[in-house]
Every structure is written in structure tokens, then in C-alpha cells.
Amino acid sequence: xxxxxxxxxxxxxxxxxxxxxxxxxxxxxxxxxxxxxxxxxxxxxxxxxxxxxxxxxxxxxxxxxxxxxxxxxxxxxxxxxxxxxxxx
Length: 88
Known about the structure:
It contains five helices and four strands. By secondary structure, it is of the alpha+beta class. Strands 1-4 form a two-stranded parallel sheet. Strands 2-3 form a two-stranded antiparallel ribbon. A hairpin with a 2-residue loop joins strand 2 and strand 3. The protein is elongated, with a radius of gyration of 18 Å. The model has no long low-confidence stretch (mean pLDDT 83).
């Protein structure tokens, strides 16, 4: 890809994002947690960014797979649950 194509692609992405009415934000366990548990500073930053998007009139859907990891640490579980009922 040439620099011209990269710029064009980046401009299209920005244009698409700016015109979007709904934004889906997907965050995983690796984003929400760190060695000491939940990454509170990052979660606060993410909440602020989502708030600004909503203040700008966008509908924001937050999808997270981080609940299992954070719950495991809180409950003292070291092995990821395998069955769906255990993960609920």
C-alpha cells in the first residue's frame, strides 16, 4: 500500500467514524485487567471517552469479555471456568 492509499484509508475511517450514530466499543480482559487486578485508571479513562461520545450524540454499546477475569481474581479462582454456568 502506498502512502497515498494509507492516507485515503485513514481519511475514510475518520469520515465513517465521525458520521456514525452508533459506536460499538469492544474491550477484553487484557485491556481491563493488569497484574494487580482491574486496571482502574484505564477503566476511568475509557468511561470518560465513552461519556464524550455520548455527549456528542452517539449511542455507545460497550461489549466486554473482562467480567470473567475480574471475577476470577475476586473469587480467588486460578483456572478459567469451562462451562457456561460456571462463568455466569
